[in-house]
Design goal:
alpha+beta; eight-stranded antiparallel β-barrel
C-alpha cells in the first residue's frame, strides 16, 4: 500500500530511539487451533490472570503463541512495569501480527509515558499499515494533548491509505473519550464526516466522534452539516450529523432535523433526532415530539416520552396528563403520567390527585412487574409519596418493584430542591429517609441495597448526623456475598467510607471464583451458535470462542442447563442495547462466579454484537446484551463474544420485560 505520512510522527520517533527501527517482519495472518494444548494453555493463563507466565510466552518461538500472549495481556485490568517492559521489547517482533497485538496491549494500559515509545515504533517504510494503525490507536489511548495534536496533524497523501486514515481517526476518538482533544482534531473529524468520497471505515470513527464529543461548530460548518444530512445515506454517519446539529441549537438545524425525521425509515436515526431536540427551545419542537408518541416503532415512541420527562414544562403538564389518558400502550401512558407528575405546578392539586389515583390504579391492576415499577417511579416524581413507596416496597416480593422503589427513594434523597420542596418538614423527611435507606441496606437485597448505598454516598453530609457510627454498615457488608453482589458491595462500602470519613479497602472479591474454560465444549467442530427464543421472535447468534473462550464456554454451559430459560431483558436503551439474563430481573446480582473480561482489539462497529454486562474489569457473570447500533465507546472495555446472524429485527423490538423463553445451542 502506498504510504507517505506527515513528518511529525517521524520527528517524534527520533526523540525516542530507545526502540530500534522495525526490521523485516512476517506479514502473515495468524491462525489458532483451539484443540492445540499449548493454545489452550495460553488462554488458560489469560483466564487465570497469570501475568508473569503469560508474558513469558512473548518470547516463544511459535508465532501464534506470542500473538495470543500479547493479545491476552490486552485484557488485563492492569499490568506490572516488568510486563510493560517485556511488551515494549516485542514492538519489533519478527511477526507483524504480534507487533500489532503488542501495540494494542500497551495502549490498553492508558499510560501516558508509553506514547513516545509507541510513536518511535511506528514503521517508517509503510509496509505494515495494520501495525501502524494499531500504533495510532494506542497513541490515542495514551497520549497527552501534545501527542494528540501531533496525531491530528498527521496526513496521508494518497486515498489508498485507508487503514492508516482509519487508525488516525480511531486514535483521535479514543483520545477525545479520555477528554484529550484539540481543535485540529475537531476540524479533521468534521472534514472527514463531510467528505462522502472517503470510505466508510474512515468516516465512521469520525461520525462517532461527532456523536459523542461536544465541540463548537460555527454557522458555516452547521450549514455544511445540514447539506450533508440531506444527502447522507449511511445511518452511522447520519447519527453523528444529527447529534452535532442538535448541539448547535440553531433554527435552520432544527428545520433540517425535522425534515430528516419525517423522511427517515431507520428507527434509530429517528430516535437520535428526538434526542437532538434537547438542544432547541421546547416550544419549537413540542409538536413534533407529541406526534412521535404515535411512531410505529415502540422505542421511538418511548424516546418521545423520555424527552417530555426531561424537558417538559409546567404549562404543558395538563397536556401530558391528557395524553396519558389517551389510547396509548401502557408503557407510554405511565411515562406520560410521570412527565405530568414531574412538571405539574404545586397549585394544581386536582390534577395531582388525578395523576396519583391513575398511577395507583395502574399499579393495582397491571400484573406486569415492569409496568408496576414504572408506575412507582412516576409516583415518586411527587416526593411526598415516599411513605407510600415504602409501603409498596414492604408489600411485594418482586425484585423489579422493590428495586424501583429504592431507586426512586434515592432520587428523592438527591433532589437539589430537597430543602425548598419539603420546607419546614425537611428535617423530619430526611430522618424518615435515613431509616428507610438503612432498612434497604440491611435487607441484603442487591438492587435495593445498591441504591440506598448510593444515596448515602452521594449525600453524606445529609445523613452523617443520623449515622454517627457505621458498625451497622460493616455488618451489612459482611453479609453481602462476593462476587455475586459485587456492585452492591462497592456502593455500600462507598457509603460506609464517606460517612465515616475513613477508607476501608475493597477486598479482592474477584480473585477467586473465575470460571474455567471448558475446552471440550469449544475445541471440536465449527464455531458454536445459539438460538434465543423470545416472545418477540427468534434471535440466532454466532459465538466467537477464539475471541472470548471463557465467556463462550460459560454462556454455553448456562444455556445447556436451562439457566436463561424464563429470564427477561430487563433493560432496553433505545438505539443502544437490549440487556438481560440476570437472576432477579432488575439488573442486579449474579451467580457465585465471575467470567474474566476478554477484550482483544475489536471494534464495537455494528449492530447485533453480543457482549457481557460488567461492573468493571473481571466482574462479568451471566448478564449479556445485544447492540442496536455501533457502540465503539465500549471498545477495549467490554467483552464481545458473538454476533447476530438472524433476528436483528427481533432485537430491535425488545422492551423491558421481554422474556427469554429458551436458549438452545447449535
Amino acid at each position: 500500500m502506498p504510504y507517505r505520512l506527515a513528518t511529525v510522527l517521524l520527528l517524534c520517533a527520533v526523540c525516542h530511539a530507545c526502540i530500534p527501527p522495525s526490521g523485516p517482519a512476517e506479514d502473515t495472518a495468524v491462525t489458532t487451533d483451539l484443540a492445540d494444548s499449548l493454545v489452550q494453555r495460553v488462554y488458560d493463563l489469560q483466564n487465570h490472570r497469570a501475568e508473569d507466565s503469560l508474558a513469558a510466552y512473548l518470547a516463544h518461538d511459535r508465532t501464534d503463541l506470542r500473538f495470543l500472549a500479547a493479545r491476552g495481556l490486552g485484557s488485563f485490568p492492569t499490568l506490572s512495569d516488568r510486563t510493560v517492559d517485556t511488551l515494549l521489547s516485542r514492538l519489533d517482533d519478527p511477526a507483524v501480527a504480534v507487533r500489532t497485538q503488542v501495540a494494542y496491549a500497551l495502549g490498553q494500559t492508558g499510560r501516558p509515558e508509553l506514547a513516545g515509545a509507541l510513536t518511535a515504533a511506528f514503521d517508517r517504510t509503510g509496509a505494515y499499515p495494520d501495525f501502524d494503525a494499531a500504533v495510532l490507536q494506542a497513541t490515542g489511548r495514551t497520549g497527552d494533548l501534545t501527542r494528540l495534536e501531533q496525531l491530528a496533524g498527521a496526513a496521508t497523501y494518497t486515498a489508498t491509505d485507508t487503514v492508516l486514515q482509519a487508525g488516525q481517526r480511531w486514535g483521535l476518538y479514543y483520545g477525545a473519550l479520555r477528554g484529550v482533544r484539540t481543535k485540529r482534531g475537531d476540524d479533521l473529524m468534521l472534514a472527514t464526516v463531510l467528505d462522502p468520497g472517503l470510505p466508510a471505515e474512515v468516516r465512521h470513527p469520525a461520525a462517532h466522534y461527532l456523536y459523542r464529543i461536544d465541540f463548537p461548530v460555527d454557522t458555516a460548518a452547521e450549514r455544511r452539516l445540514r447539506q450533508q444530512l440531506r444527502a447522507e445515506e449511511d445511518p452511522v454517519v447520519a447519527m453523528g450529523l444529527i447529534r452535532s446539529l442538535g448541539r448547535t441549537g440553531l433554527p435552520p438545524a432544527r428545520v433540517a432535523l425535522l425534515a430528516y425525521y419525517e423522511s427517515s425509515e431507520d428507527w434509530r436515526t429517528r430516535v437520535e433526532v428526538l434526542r437532538a431536540f434537547a438542544g432547541f427551545e421546547y416550544a419549537a419542537v413540542r409538536e413534533s415530539v407529541v406526534e412521535a408518541l404515535r411512531d410505529p416503532h415502540p422505542l421511538v415512541a418511548r424516546t418521545a416520552t423520555d424527552y417530555l420527562i426531561e424537558h417538559g414544562t409546567a404549562a404543558d403538564a395538563p397536556l401530558y396528563l391528557q395524553l396519558a389518558e389517551d389510547d396509548l400502550p401502557p408503557e407510554l401512558r405511565i411515562e406520560l403520567y410521570r412527565a405530568a407528575n414531574r412538571h405539574l405546578s404545586p397549585f394544581l392539586t386536582d390534577y395531582r390527585d388525578r395523576i396519583i389515583a391513575n398511577l395507583q390504579t395502574t399499579y393495582a391492576e397491571d400484573t406486569d412487574p415492569y409496568h408496576r415499577a414504572a408506575a412507582l417511579r412516576a409516583m415518586g416524581e411527587f416526593p411526598w409519596m415516599y411513605r407510600i413507596l415504602a409501603e409498596h416496597y414492604r408489600d411485594t416480593d418482586s425484585p423489579v418493584v422493590r428495586t424501583a422503589v429504592a431507586e426512586t427513594l434515592q432520587s428523592i434523597s438527591e433532589r437539589e430542591d430537597f430543602e425548598d420542596f419539603f420546607r419546614g418538614s425537611a428535617g423530619r423527611v430526611r430522618t424518615d429517609l435515613a431509616e428507610l435507606l438503612r432498612e434497604l441496606i440491611e435487607s441484603g437485597e442487591a438492587g435495593p441495597a445498591y441504591h440506598a448505598g448510593l444515596a448515602l454516598a452521594t449525600s453524606p453530609g445529609a445523613y452523617r448526623a443520623a449515622f454517627p457510627e457505621v458498625a451497622w454498615l460493616d455488618s451489612a457488608l459482611a453479609r453481602l456475598e462476593l462476587p455475586r453482589q459485587i456492585e452492591t458491595y462497592r456502593e455500600v462500602l462507598a457509603a460506609r467510607n464517606t460517612l465515616a470519613e475513613t477508607q476501608v479497602p475493597e477486598p479482592p472479591a474477584t480473585a477467586a471464583g473465575a470460571r474455567e474454560i471448558d475446552w471440550d465444549r469449544l475445541a471440536d467442530g465449527p464455531a458454536p451458535a445459539a438460538r434465543i427464543r423470545t416472545g418477540e421472535g427468534v434471535i440466532r447468534i454466532r459465538l466467537w470462542p477464539d475471541v472470548a473462550p471463557a465467556t463462550v464456554s460459560s454462556f454455553l454451559k448456562l444455556a445447556k442447563r436451562g439457566y436463561y430459560d424464563g429470564k427477561v431483558f430487563h433493560r432496553v436503551v433505545p438505539n443502544f442495547v437490549a440487556q438481560g439474563g440476570g437472576p432477579r430481573g432488575d439488573g442486579f446480582g449474579s451467580e457465585n462466579f465471575i467470567v474474566r473480561t476478554e477484550t482483544p482489539p475489536l471494534h464495537w462497529d455494528r449492530a447485533g454484537l453480543v457482549g457481557m454486562a460488567s461492573a468493571g474489569k473481571d466482574t462479568e457473570g451471566v448478564q449479556f446484551f445485544i447492540t442496536h447500533r455501533p457502540t465503539p465507546h465500549l471498545d477495549g472495555n467490554y467483552t464481545i463474544f458473538g454476533e447476530v446472524m438472524e433476528g436483528q429485527d427481533v432485537v430491535d423490538r425488545l422492551v423491558p420485560g421481554s422474556r427469554i423463553l429458551q436458549i438452545t445451542t447449535e
